Structures
1.
Amino acid sequence: MKKVAFSSTGRDLNALLDPRFGRCDFFVIVDVETDDVEVFENEAKNASGGAGIQAAQFVANRGVDAVVSGNFGPNAFQTLNAAEVAIYTGTGGTIQQNLMALVNNQLQRINGSTVESHHGMNMPQGGMGGGGGRRMGGGRGRGGGW
Amino acid sequence: MEICVISGKGGTGKTTVAVNLVLSCEKGMFLDCDVEEPDGRIFLLPRIERIDSSFISVPVIDEKKCNFCGKCAEVCIFNAIAVVKKKILFFERLCRGCSACWLVCPEGALSEGKKETGVIKSGEVKNLRFQEGSINPGEETGHSIVYHMRNMIDKNDTVIIDGPPGLSPVLLETVDKTDYAIIVTEPTPFGFHDLCLTVELLDNLKVPYGVIINKDNGNSSIEEYCQKRSIPLLLKIPFDMEIAELYSRGIPFSMELPGWHDKFKNVLTYIMKYHWRKKDSTSVKWPYS
């Protein structure tokens, strides 16, 4: 394993891991061998749909071997799998803490999505877990999603 | 002419108003565009004569021709295509059928295919034509069904459209470029909140509109709001046990309770007059006060 992408709430290793994969604020990509750190804003963050797919494609095309985040939806999972990227669920805490845990083999590698589609929508940032608006758009009553 | 009945909040009485309104027409059409839950037929009991599928265009991928350049994934604003590690993934449920992917493909690896997203049922009841769209379970949005239904409308007909709740793209597809919209609201904070949102939307779309208060309990806040914004108040339907009971039996209340047939007819007449004198709307006075 060389390059690892972390979903992050900030621009450096001291930022907290963002529990949302597709709709995190930033991706912090660390080269485990050289300790090089690259930071990218997550352009998928405000996508109306398919944020996980777009984000997965983005990190995969940056040549990462693994991703660490809180939760992965089914579409993100499928895309990362196709890209042969290993998927880990992080612990709470900073990117640095998660990096150490990963290097020490303490993170759990997962083989299936951890949440349903749309989980990370409208979810307040920071803090692991928590719910999220599952319906998109301004629907009232039933449905109404784009 | 197309008159669209909408509400923002669900359960305010869109279908009740639309059904009673269409029954006051001599000749007309009822178009149920609430594709997630079409229920006008419960009250109108139409004879369904034909059922058509509603399709969207989706890409068909020929992986042998694909060079994994990723242009299709880049152009797809719905993120329905991903290209990673010499693999192309298509997420059919996210596709809205915009055609962009096969238009940009330089290799001709993508071509146009079809996918059914719902059905359109057409029929008749008395002197009225009836049509309803319903979305297939699992589909995310029915705006293409509404698009097809509205494309089939005869512009010379009086068409009453029963719209979907919310302010979603399906609603936009339903109400955009209609001749008039009726907002059905109720005297609750939620009803009022969504009335305001709907007003804002219709102002932006430049669709003329009026308000019907359903389940009216004497609370005057909606009336005051309408007065302040010069929105015509077309009708007030009281919070009434008889109306509720008829509704629960699937009977349009204007057919049973005296006077209501004419009240709905008056609403229709007002809208027609407004429509034909649109350029001089101040000359149309609504008798209701």
2.
Amino acid sequence: MFDFSKNYFDLFGLPVAFLIDTASLAERYRELQRVVHPDRYASASEQEQRLALQQATMVNEAFETLRDPLKRAVYLLQLNGVDTNQETATTRDGAFLMQQMELREALAELRDLDDPYPGLDRLMAQIGGLIKEQVAQLAVQFESGSPEQLEAARESVSKMQFLNKLHSEAEALEAELEEMI
Amino acid sequence: MALLQIAEPGQSTAPHEHRLAAGIDLGTTNSLVASVFSGEARTLADDAGAHILPSVVRYTPEGVVVGEQARAAAVQDPHNTIASAKRLIGRAIGDIKTLGDQLPYRFTEQDSAVPRIRTVAGDVSPIEVSAEILKVLASRAQQTLGGELTGVVITVPAYFDDAQRQATKDAAKLAGLNVFRLLNEPTAAAVAYGLDHGAEGVHAIYDLGGGTFDISILRLNKGVFEVMATGGDSALGGDDFDRAIAEWIMQQAGIGDSADAGVLRSLSEQARSAKEALSEQTSVPLQVALPDGASWQGELTRDRFNELVDPLIRKTISACRRALRDAGISADEVEDVVMVGGSTRALRVREKVGEFFDTEPLVSIDPDRVVAIGAAIQADVLAGNKPDEQMLLLDVNPLSLGLETMGGLVEKIIPRNTTIPVARAQEFTTFKDGQTAMAVHVVQGERELVADCRSLARFELRGIPPMVAGAARIRVTFSVDADGLLHVEAEEQSQGVKASVEVKPSYGLTDDEIAGMLKASIEHAGEDMAARKLGEQQVEVARVVEALTAALASDGDELLNAEERSTVDAALQRLQQAAQTSQDADQLKAEIEALEKACDFYVERRMNSGIHKAMAGHKVEEFE
């Protein structure tokens, strides 16, 4: 029944789809961990402890993957045989790249302001909004599932990687500002 | 081999005796031990009725003294009396010096990576000092509970890094304890608090102890404690409050930095009692004997005290903000804040924390005992005393784990606040033609430069088949177990050549060192090792037989066909026979292993059947 070759959706008894019921995902996750977590085997044999460790590790990995829209999209593309080499993620969307450059400049300029917080909050909200747009697009693309739409989904994934990176840079700036207080 | 403790609710497995287990709060300043008996978790007192054991160990030519008596002698005998060993455990000499040069100990330079302190009873490492404290607490538990402990849960600061965790486990090994689990202190507090209040939702645990600070954000849901994020500072605590006060006094009284160890000790004692008094009064009088025989008199007001500690409290609030961000929530989503650790008695701390989370901090459980009580509850569950218990703790790794890459940069493999257990792999390649070896440097921390992170281990992967640059595929796998301990393996994949290494942290003891210390302590106690080993194996045999019998009774008919059943029965019988005839511990161990091997398929089937049951009860269409 616990099959390490199972796909993550099957593991949680969820349909293979981008749109996911996050409440049941979390619920199933807790149910599975209740059974496989190493704490259940603290007084058991080494062999059972090893098995439990492997299973709990896989359940955690599966949960982490499905919970996060970007990781979920990458995983779905993999299941569909679409290669998403994250190292070489690119997009040819000129308008998008232009927007990225502008956002990056805006972030860099914040550093020199006396009170960077209002601008930083605005910028982070803007990036958050753009990420949500990509998530909505991914939902449509995966719903269709045609080769063209999957290719479009690959592109959306690349864009999300750009946006996520920018978002974490904004967070890093926020953390840096706090350190200086 | 408990063969899984999955029983359906209401259907108990075979009746087995209550296994003795204890939770230990190994603190910087004070330590406690607690256990669940008669259905309630309680801290245990010594013969004199004291629950708290000061974490102070004094070495004398006559022997080792632990606790209040040792603490009382600290001023007169500073070099041989070790306090706050927790601040030193799992650290290298260099790290310790940065903690502040006011430590009154004489460290010895040695080959070993573990620092040792020179005492009249010989050189001791912080691990051995901690083991002494653990021994006293364990024997207190065994006396109170009337039997051997099957295992313990020891709490550590959530922000402890890998080396500090490993060192704590080594200390337990030296003390002869079976460690079920290392449990994070704030998680332990959440258990004690959550079970008490039946709370659900998101909670923050603010834990400021003597030498460490932790903040954890947890979500409670039907008995599952899910740590969303944790943060802190493993070298910040009430001791720093004392030091700030002591430094202020030195300044006021004109005492120089070169004052001797006894004067420093007495100053920090004064500072500590002044701090404690200021939770009740608005000012305290001070009197200090000066080295030249004169004395200085002064006063510390609460306002001045607040000024002195505010920068330290600000550091903790900063960590709270970071933890919230990692958890992806804002302060107003936190339902309440539980205060843990003696240093949260300071009114200023409560005030600032309340301000930040915009809620009155909860101080209803004795902040000194709550961690030990939570650990005791978890120990009871892990001992298998509650097969139907729904409680489950899902914890995270506190600091990012990574590898050194070109140019002294860190490549993060497992980011901080990832739920454990976890395993992640990353592929690397060679950068020179014909390269046959690769250095792997494992680091822990959040910074981008290796130099700013904690170095955990270095090893070399050798025997890579010579290839052109970039052709080799070296897969490095990091796995963190449920204790938060890291294992790293590297493997060359392209030509199927395997070379893997298990890493021990650089600042832990080597296995040989542990073996040597264990041997010495056993010889010292005059115990017969063979008899002890045999006894342990006999207990293990009984446990395995009991577990397997119970498992067979509950689902043997359902999961096994007649042939399989007779295989398992025969293996079980063989072990029972061996137990009756053999007096050889190694042979018994081998017999247990043989049985486990023979029942391999059954164990797996039971686990799967458990998963099946966990997933049952959902509608069929949910699975489509």
